[in-house]
């Protein structure tokens, strides 16, 4: 706090009014809108460690973390220093730099199945490229995705998508041609039989199965035991590629992402991986990586075209490299511990108020789902997510916001903590939970 509140108007309300006149919905990504929870989104002036300060001078404990990238908290001094040093050397060249190779090597050392990697600027580009590669490699057209999984705003992947598509209750997006939509098959998550059925019917036409390694865009819905391994088995059996989308989980849920928690132990890997968020440390970097024989199909080696003016941008690459180099096992241990405390105490507060709920989690990612069905059985797929008492979330969110806690403005998004969430920051959140749980109970 203490920053002069000036950015885009004198208050968040003024800034938002001005923004709405010139930016659709006043936001540059729908997930930032407050439609699902009500009220005006705070306009951020600055962030430091676990805190955000808005243009009104209010401080919040941030539980969104830029939707994932802020693994070390905001404005980590060593990351900022790396960015400043890179910026002083030039903002971008459109020619190769050594730091790009270093970032790719950092990724490969953590997920060896990413034998070759191409850097892009957004997760959307990464999944789009992964699909194109899978189609080129297999000579097939169809793609299988799971309901409630979000893979960016690629036309073919907007069917039954999570994240903002779920928050806005859209079955899919307008503007996607029928021809493109017809090439995507949507299967319920955690349902091996349904997938077997799809392969039995269309197996010879399926290029790839794409999945969030652990879904966190319909709220958190962890893969059941062995589910990802079944995807591996079925794709091998039918000659399709398996694309594990780790844009969100990659290098956030652990040193080697979700693969490090599951595939490493079970002894398998996907054909292609997509990464984003943490590998840019808050600046635009994402990546697609995987089997050498598949990746070698990319131009200029092969016929699959993919390119980007800003790909591997030196300032963004510096932020990602500094972030990953600081992200050692102690960082992940702290994040796991902090997430565990929040999960436990949120559940305790809700139980105290008699709110039936399930605090769902995958690694350090978690989200609260409400209602007797969620409480009894947990939530295993998107249909079950849609049957929860999600309206209770708005009241919970408003109460937290008033107490200075910035939780995701949607019941269908994961909560994120960082290694900078120290005991003081956690205490502030814990103190806000009882009132928030009361609000959820009364909703
Ligand atoms: N895949 C997953 C799993 C994601 O969570 C996201 C973004 N939330 C994306 C892809 C798309 O990434 P981007 O927003 O950088 O395009």
Automatic annotation (TrEMBL):
Gene Ontology biological process terms from the UniProt entry: protoporphyrinogen IX biosynthetic process
Encoding gene per record: hemL
The family this protein is said to belong to: Belongs to the class-III pyridoxal-phosphate-dependent aminotransferase family. HemL subfamily.
Localization per record: Cytoplasm
Entries under NCBIfam families matching the protein: hemL, PRK00062.1
Needed co-factor(s): pyridoxal 5'-phosphate
Protein's UniProt name: Glutamate-1-semialdehyde 2,1-aminomutase
Enzyme class of the recorded protein, top EC level: isomerase
Pathway: Porphyrin-containing compound metabolism; protoporphyrin-IX biosynthesis; 5-aminolevulinate from L-glutamyl-tRNA(Glu): step 2/2
E.C. number(s) listed in UniProt: 5.4.3.8
Subunit structure: Homodimer.
Main location (coarse class): cytoplasm
Catalytic activity line of the entry: (S)-4-amino-5-oxopentanoate = 5-aminolevulinate
Molecular function as annotated in GO: glutamate-1-semialdehyde 2,1-aminomutase activity; pyridoxal phosphate binding; transaminase activity
Modified positions (N6-(pyridoxal phosphate)lysine) in chain numbering: 277
């Amino acid at each position: 706090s203490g920053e002069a509140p000036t950015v885009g108007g004198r208050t968040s309300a003024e800034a938002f009014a001005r923004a709405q006149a010139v930016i659709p919905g006043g936001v540059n990504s729908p997930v930032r809108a407050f439609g699902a929870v009500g009220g005006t989104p705070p306009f951020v002036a600055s962030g430091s460690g676990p805190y955000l300060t808005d243009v009104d001078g209010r401080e919040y404990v941030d539980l969104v973390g830029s939707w994932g990238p802020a693994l070390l908290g905001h404005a980590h001094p060593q990351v900022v220093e790396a960015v400043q040093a890179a910026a002083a050397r030039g903002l971008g060249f459109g020619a190769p730099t050594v730091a790009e190779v270093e970032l790719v090597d950092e990724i490969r050392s953590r997920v060896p199945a990413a034998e070759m990697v191409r850097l892009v600027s957004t997760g959307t580009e990464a999944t789009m490229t992964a699909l194109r590669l899978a189609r080129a490699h297999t000579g097939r057209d169809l793609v299988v995705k799971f309901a409630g999984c979000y893979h960016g705003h690629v036309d073919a992947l907007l069917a039954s998508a999570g994240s903002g598509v779920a928050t806005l209750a859209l079955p899919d997006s307008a503007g996607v041609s029928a021809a493109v939509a017809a090439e995507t098959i949507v299967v319920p998550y955690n349902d091996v039989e349904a997938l077997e059925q799809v392969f039995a019917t269309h197996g010879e036409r399926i290029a790839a199965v794409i999945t969030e390694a652990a879904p966190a865009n319909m709220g958190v819905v962890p893969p059941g035991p062995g589910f990802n391994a079944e995807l591996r088995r079925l794709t091998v059996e039918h000659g399709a590629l398996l694309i594990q989308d780790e844009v969100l989980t990659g290098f956030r849920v652990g040193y080697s992402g979700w693969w490090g928690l599951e595939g490493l132990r079970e002894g398998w890997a996907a054909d292609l991986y997509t990464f984003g968020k943490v590998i840019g440390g808050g600046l635009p970097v994402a990546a697609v990586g995987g089997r050498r024989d598949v990746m070698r199909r990319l131009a200029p080696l092969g016929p699959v075209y993919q390119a980007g003016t800003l790909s591997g941008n030196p300032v963004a690459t510096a932020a990602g490299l500094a972030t990953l180099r600081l992200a050692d096992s102690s960082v992940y241990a702290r994040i796991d511990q902090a997430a565990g405390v929040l999960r436990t105490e949120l559940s305790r507060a809700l139980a105290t108020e008699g709110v039936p709920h399930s605090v769902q989690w995958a690694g350090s990612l978690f989200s609260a789902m409400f209602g007797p069905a969620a409480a009894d059985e947990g939530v295993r797929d998107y249909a079950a997510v849609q049957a929860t008492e999600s309206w209770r979330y708005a009241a919970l969110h408003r109460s937290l916001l008033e107490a200075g806690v910035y939780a995701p403005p949607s019941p269908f998004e994961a909560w994120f903590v960082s290694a900078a969430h120290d005991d003081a920051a956690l205490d502030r959140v814990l103190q806000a939970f009882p009132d928030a749980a009361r609000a959820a109970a009364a909703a």
